[in-house]
Structures are given as C-alpha cells and as structure tokens.
C-alpha cells in the first residue's frame, strides 16, 4: 500500500503581509510576530517549558520550528522595543491519519493542523492573548488547506479546556488514558473547519 502525502505548502508569511485578521485577534498593547529562525528557539523553549508537566527535547522543538516556521507566532508587548515575547503558539500540519491508512489508490488530500504548544506568561493571562494566538494559527492552517485542527491537553488543565472548548469550539474526540509521563489522562480535541 502506497499513499502519497499531499505537498504541504509553506505560507511564506512575513510580518508585512496582509493576513485576514478579525477584531478578536487584536489585543491592545500586544503585537503578534512571526518566528524568524533558530536564534529564537530558546525563547520558545523558555516560554513553553515553564508549564510543561514533561519536558520536550530540543529535537521536538526543532521538528516543529524548522518544518513549520510560519506556524509559530509570538505575542510581544508593544510599548517596549526590547520586550521579550510573553506568549507563543507552535503548530504543524500533517496528512489526516485516517487518510494515510486508507487503501485507496489516489493520493491522500486531507490535511490536519496540530497545535503542539501554547503558552502565555502568567503575568499576561486572561487578556485574550491565548485565544488570539490560537485563532491566528488556526487561520493560517486553514489557509494551508487543513480541514480540521487537533491537539491534546491534560484533563486537569481547566484553563486550556475552557479556552479550546468553550471559547473556540473544539470538541472532545478521544479520552487518552495515562497519556502523559506523569500518568495524567488527556483529551484529544478537534476543531472541524470544513469537509
Ligand atoms: C491556557 C493558556 C494558554 C490560556 O492563555 P490566556 O491568554 O490566559 O487565555 P485567554 O485570556 O485567551 O482565555 C480565554 C478563555 O479561556 C478560559 N480560561 C483561561 N484561563 C483560565 C483559567 N485559569 N481558569 C479558567 N478558565 C480560563 C476562560 O474561559 C477565558 O475566557 P475569559 O477570560 O473571558 O473567562 C494559559 O493559561 C497558559 O499558558 N497555561 C499554561 C500552558 C498551557 O496549559 N497550555 C495549553 C496546553 S494544551
């Protein structure tokens, strides 16, 4: 059985490009900036690593950031030119899992976006930054042709569950028993974008 993965197009987004931005993706005093290059990997690791129950290796970060630089977005305070990012999201795009296993002859065409990491510094939480980062990343993955977006989160992570389910319309798809190294269970959540 051979299935051909669809070509995943890079967006080639730079900060000057005009993306379609809705009002709820704009946060007063915060600018949203694209990941540039490997020199920023420490910033991502610092932001994301603080809240992780299990550490990711640098190879995991590299996998996402090298293959999908357009899908890493920082939130940075606007008023200070030297300000460090206070939030970030890291995503990737894969062929849909069901599609890869399908024994049909033609190439698989469905793409699924995946949110690998999301973090907002404690001092800036509950201001809509997390939601704005997710919406911006989802918009990009939709633009790349994804028909849905997936992620996993610990069942005990109330903030993430509320953000994804209540605020953004993700739905519970699977309960993953002892998914994390700390033995915590997870939900796999999915947001359907189109057929
Ligand atoms: C999850 C996280 C990214 C949310 O970031 P944020 O910028 O505070 O999120 P928002 O301000 O956009 O919140 C949107 C909604 O999510 C829910 N929410 C966010 N934080 C919450 C909390 N601590 N308790 C309950 N609900 C919460 C609320 O419904 C909130 O809307 P409201 O403020 O109008 O009530 C942030 O808490 C974080 O970095 N946590 C640690 C890392 C993490 O858990 N990442 C997700 C892994 S899957």
TrEMBL record:
GO molecular function annotations of the record: protein-N-terminal amino-acid acetyltransferase activity
Keywords attached to this entry: Acyltransferase, Transferase
CDD domains noted in UniProt: NAT_SF
Domain N-acetyltransferase: 30-194
Pfam families: Acetyltransf_1
InterPro entries: Acyl_CoA_acyltransferase, GNAT_dom, NAA30-like
GO CC terms of this entry: NatC complex
Record family assignment: Belongs to the acetyltransferase family. MAK3 subfamily.
Name by which UniProt lists this protein: N-alpha-acetyltransferase 30
Species whose genome carries this gene: Chaetoceros tenuissimus
């Amino acid at each position: 059985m051979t299935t051909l993965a669809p070509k995943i197009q890079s967006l080639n987004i730079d900060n000057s490009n005009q993306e379609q931005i809705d009002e709820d993706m704009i946060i007063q005093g915060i600018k949203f900036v694209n990941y540039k290059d490997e020199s920023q990997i420490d910033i991502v690791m610092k932001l994301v690593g603080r809240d992780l129950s299990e550490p990711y290796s640098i190879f995991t970060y590299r996998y996402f950031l090298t293959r999908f630089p357009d899908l890493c977005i920082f939130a940075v305070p606007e008023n200070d030119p030297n300000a460090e990012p206070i939030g970030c999201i890291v995503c990737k795009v894969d062929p849909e899992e069901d599609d890869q296993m399908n024994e049909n002859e033609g190439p698989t065409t469905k793409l699924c976006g995946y949110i690998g990491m999301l973090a907002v510094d404690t001092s800036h939480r509950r201001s809509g930054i997390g939601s704005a980062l997710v919406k911006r990343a989802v918009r990009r993955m939709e633009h790349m042709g994804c028909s849905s977006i997936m992620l996993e989160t610990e069942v005990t992570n109330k903030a993430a569950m509320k953000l994804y389910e209540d605020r953004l319309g993700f739905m519970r798809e699977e309960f993953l028993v002892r998914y994390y190294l700390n033995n915590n269970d997870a939900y796999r959540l999915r947001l359907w974008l189109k057929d």
